[in-house]
Task: inverse folding
């Protein structure tokens, strides 16, 4: 699974863009979501996808907008899935959290954190924090 956590940049000095962005993403790629995109905290939202081909266009769209720090987590999500994104759990969620925090300190404002079960998967240098 793929979890994207997007945190609005400089939200204290800008309009709240979360609901508008979620609405836009749903209208563009609604069928691709495993669970509906949802605001998770203040100026942040999460998206859950199960198809890699849906991830790249979404990440690029958020990046091009210029308003988001974007974390992409790849990994497992606990089953059965709950009704809401906020209630879901799993390594993909933890990875997305680590990734968005790392993204905040990067010029690209993007970070990928792939699942590393048991710490045995070696990450490429571009994915390390």
Result:
């Amino acid at each position: 699974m793929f979890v994207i956590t997007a945190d609005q940049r400089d939200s204290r000095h800008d309009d709240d863009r979360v609901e508008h962005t979620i609405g836009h993403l749903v209208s563009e790629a609604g069928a691709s979501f495993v669970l509906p995109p949802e605001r998770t905290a203040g100026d942040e939202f999460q998206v859950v996808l199960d198809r890699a081909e849906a991830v790249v266009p979404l990440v690029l769209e958020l990046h091009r907008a210029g308003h988001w720090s974007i974390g992409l987590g790849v990994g497992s999500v606990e089953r059965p899935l709950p009704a809401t994104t906020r209630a879901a759990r799993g390594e993909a969620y933890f990875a997305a959290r680590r990734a968005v925090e790392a993204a905040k300190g990067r010029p690209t404002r993007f970070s990928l954190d792939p699942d590393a079960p048991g710490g045995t998967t070696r990450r490429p240098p571009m994915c390390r924090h």
